[in-house]
Amino acid sequence: MNAYANLDHTEILQYLFHPHPTEQDAKPENSYDIDVIVEDGVKLGCRFFLENLAAPTILYFHGNGETVSDYNDIAPFYRRFGLNLLVATYRGYGWSTGIPSVSTMLSDCHAVYKKYEQLSAEMHLAGPLFVMGRSIGSAAAIELCQDQPELIKGLIIESGFADTLPLLYCLGLAPDKCQLTEEDGFGNLKKISEIKLPTLILHGAADQVIPVPQAERLQAFCGARMKKFFIIPGADHNSMIASGGEHYFLTIKTFTDEATGRNTWREKRHKYKRT
Length: 275
Hints:
By secondary structure, the protein is of the alpha/beta class. The protein has a single domain (10-274), classed as Rossmann fold (3-Layer(aba) Sandwich), CATH 3.40.50.1820. It has ten helices and eight strands. The protein has helices at 10-16, 75-80, 102-123, 137-147, 164-170, 188-193, 212-221, 240-244, 246-259, 265-274, and strands at residues 31-39, 42-49, 57-61, 84-88, 129-134, 154-158, 199-204, 227-232. Helix 7 links the parallel strand 7 and strand 8. The radius of gyration is 18 Å and the shape is globular. 44% of the residues are buried.
């Protein structure tokens, strides 16, 4: 039985997904294009931006209306902070094939993870893995972290949503035309309550698409003992990096260090004892 069948109606999907097909562009230096076959005749065109083999890798599920190529100019900032970035995508976005839906997005993220495992083995990646989701991508990130907690070191959510119906209303679906209940939705709150992984939630103070209370609900329900909540002043839904600047990336880097025991007071104390 498809748990997301009620969301997968055309009249609902037109509000949730805005695929942007593009031709495959020339990949930047130190990046690799990766095709993830999710079913016969359907592939996801992802891109891996490599800093070094020992660095932490962020498996990143992008926002709506974006493509993998949009991260060509953003990835260098992750690399500057010592992070690899693997940008995943959805059916119909960029040079990916197929038609997006909620059910396929939440099943395809597992196929992307399996491809990462293969890539890690082939390239001998030695660093830890973190999963990050922005906006609609937060649902894929939460889904994956709920299902694979022992293999992932942490979860990062940017501009994520807790409840499905408020999101649909903000996106323009009239409440009187919506026959859904919250039980028909993504289930982000229930899933995040079961996640024990270190979690970082980033949100814009001026986000009008997904208002701050949605991020606060994710924070409140999150089952992690180590969870951090960071609001970027002045940032709206699409200006997190522009408003946060280097502090945005430093926050992510500090979180990955702390989640893996790097740059903590225990590590500093150990180094002090050795000197």
